[in-house]
Amino acid sequence: MFDIAIIGAGPAGGSAALFTAKAGKKTVLIDSDQSITKKAWIENHYGVPEIKGPDLVETGIKQAQKFGAELVKAKAADIQKKNDGFQIITEDGSEIEAKAVILATGLLVDLAEKVGLTTKAGTEPRIKTVFDVDAAGRTNIDGIWAAGTAAGVSVHTIITAGDGARVAVNVISEMNGARYVDHDLLK
């Protein structure tokens, strides 16, 4: 069983996976290759003069994998509550178990109705529906969190990446029972 399953490997999901894996949490990143970032040309991402969206996504995935995150290329079709966490069923019938789930599905909130997640109207242009989350990123189902555009933040990659990190830190902190902070020093 994984500690944390992250559904969606765009900037929010990749950033969340980087933080959770680096914190030593057994992390799986489930991605269906549908990120809107894959169509983007980006010149407003702090620290990066310019980058193609697919390159940004790939870099984020590689960073998370460096710290042990596992990538599963599949589309999540259902999430079922189990005694000690969740079972994620992919479209091909594979089953992945995790103690907690972070939804970083961008524009895709189709799991909401099936799983019983509360949604609300989006506020960004062209974003009709988002998961209804609290200030920490929790949904109405204990143990399922949401980050990035799917959770109602701006579609800009720098903002969704930051939100993925923020929600991951909140999940890690809850699991650890103390506020998690990760600061590296120059070597």
TrEMBL record:
Coiled coil: none annotated. Keywords: Flavoprotein, Oxidoreductase. Residues 3-35 form the FAD-dependent oxidoreductase 2 FAD-binding domain. Its cofactor is FAD. Residues 72-161 form the FAD/NAD(P)-binding domain. Pfam families: FAD_binding_2, Pyr_redox_2. Signal peptide: none annotated. InterPro entries: FAD-dep_OxRdtase_2_FAD-bd (IPR003953), FAD/NAD-bd_sf (IPR036188), FAD/NAD-binding_dom (IPR023753), Ferredoxin-NADP_redctase_2 (IPR050097). Homodimer. This is FAD-dependent oxidoreductase. It comes from Paenibacillus solisilvae.
